[in-house]
Amino acid sequence: MIFALLIWIVAARPAFAQAQLKMDNLDRLASAAAEVVNVTIDEQLLQLASKFLSATRSADERDIKELVRDLKGVYVKRFEFDRDNGYTQSDIDPLLKQLHAPAWARIVGVTSTRELKNIEVFMMTEGSLIKGIAVVAAQPRELTVVNVVGPIDIDKLSRLQGQFGIPQLDLGSKPK
Asked: 87 to each of 26, 76, 93, 101, how far by Cα in Å?
């Protein structure tokens, strides 16, 4: 039984590793950007941060603690440019090529010619388990990529909608 558990743990690690996007190719955009945000929160740092959240103090803190408890990482790259076209489609193509079926499924796509923006949300699942989420938001002067790796409970995530800067996304259940 212990041997089977060890095999499962070892096999599960690479599965979640596939949900982590390779975003290094975007680093070269930093020299042309007026502002760069680069967030790397790995599993160890997430576990440390969750220890500061109380499971008894408030429902919000409890929900956040439960949500991040099993995550493997949160990665964000955001570039803001002083002029339009600070990046090209060829800059983001290597990233988008990672987000194809069967591993990833595009669940949201917003294209606005009025506001000149494209937002795409992708999800990696295995059965009913969400293994990762990726968001690519492209505007003429801004490019943002968010990658959340690890098991994500949509019910817990939906309870946080409209709070802590998390947008109201209508994920299926009503927020508290």
From this structure: 9, 17, 11, 25
Kindly compute the dihedral angle of the four CA atoms of residues 69, 156, 16, 103, in this order, to the nearest 10 degrees: 180
What six digits make up the tokens of 151? 């098991």
Helical H segments across the chain, by residue range: 2-17, 43-50, 59-69, 89-97, 154-159
- The predicted model gives 164-169 an average pLDDT of 50
**Does some domain include residue 28?**
yes
Residue 135 to residue 115: CA distance in whole angstroms:
18
User: pLDDT by residue (tens digit) across 55-102?
Assistant: 666 776 777 777 777 888 888 999 999 999 899 999 999 999 999 888
Q: Does some domain include residue 64?
A: yes
Compute the distance between CA of residue 115 and CA of residue 141 in angstroms, rounded to an integer. Answer: 12
User: How many domains does the chain fold into?
Assistant: 1
* pLDDT top residue among 115 and 109: 109
Within a domain: 170: no
CA dihedral 64→78→112→149, nearest 10 degrees, is -40
Q: Supply the mean pLDDT for the chain.
A: 79
